[in-house]
Amino acid sequence: MTRIALYPGSFDPTTLGHLDLIRRATRFADRLVVAVATNPNKAPMFTAAERLDLLRRSVGPSPGVEFGVLTGLLAHHAKEIGATILIRGLRGSGDFEYEAQMALMNRRLNPDLETVFLAPDSGLTFVSASLVREVARFGGEVSSLVPPVVAEALKARFAR
Ligand code: PNS
Fold first, then answer.
1. What rounded mean pLDDT belongs to the chain?
2. Overall average pLDDT of the 33-41 stretch
3. Ligand 1 centroid, distance to 159 Cα (angstroms)
4. Residue 38's pLDDT is what?
5. The predicted structure's pLDDT at residue 44
6. Could you tell me which residues come within 8 angstroms of residue 158 by beta carbon, excluding any fewer than 6 positions away?
7. What are phi and psi of 32, to 5 degrees?
8. Is residue 119 a contact partner of residue 148, using CB atoms and an 8 Å limit?
9. Ligand 1 pocket member 14 (CB < 6 A)
10. Residue 160: is its pLDDT beyond 70?
11. CA 40 / ligand 1 centre spacing (Å)
């Protein structure tokens, strides 16, 4: 049996926290599909194509890891690609309400999809893409929180 896991997110932009979760998920998934998705409650800083490009370049060649853009419902996409595991990161109790609600809604939409929450490395629990964007916007140093390609992209974005 091939275990296919889907790891969706805004990835706006990719952080070291995302890379940590990707590494952890590859330990138990035979195939991991990392999907840049649309969160209807957020206005992204980078376009979906830019987010995908930064994500791909941040991860680099990694056997068993694939990338894509997800435009519709996550639960339906999982069924289409045969994914039975949905990966989400849980940094702390602040994430829990929203994540638990999504997990139950996704289960209702696709009962074959099991959400698996992964805790990031303890040194990365404070890292969020939204805080990274905010710090970078005001000229703060984010190079220890994001992959080098993302740090460059943020610098270029705010140098304008
Ligand atoms: O990184 P984020 O912004 O927390 O990711 C949230 C995301 C993109 C995974 C969520 O908004 C999502 O699943 N979007 C796709 C549309 C969908 O299926 N919505 C219903 C979720 S229960």
1. 97
2. 93
3. 30
4. 85
5. 96
6. 136, 137, 139
7. -120, 120
8. no
9. no
10. no
11. 8
What mean pLDDT comes out for the span 66-95?
97
Distance from the alpha carbon of residue 36 to the mean position of ligand 1, in angstroms: 9
Judge if the beta carbon of residue 86 lies within 6 A of ligand 1: no
**Is the pLDDT reported for residue 144 higher than 70?**
yes
Residue 88: predicted pLDDT:
98
Entry pTM: 0.97
At residue 103, the 3 state secondary structure works out as helix
User: Is 104 a pocket residue for ligand 1 (Cβ < 6 Å)?
Assistant: no
Give, using CA atoms, the residue closest to atom 3 of ligand 1: 10
13 lines ligand 1 (CB under 6 A): no
Fold classified for 4-159:
Rossmann fold (3.40.50)
45 vs 55: CA distance, rounded Å: 14
Where do the domains of the chain lie?
A: 4-159
Using most ligand atoms within 8 A of CB, pick from 33, 91, 97, 102 the residue to mutate for ligand 1: 102
**Neighbour count for residue 83 (Cβ, 10 Å):** 27
Q: Which residues contact 119 (CB under 8 A, 6 or more apart)?
A: 89, 90, 91, 125
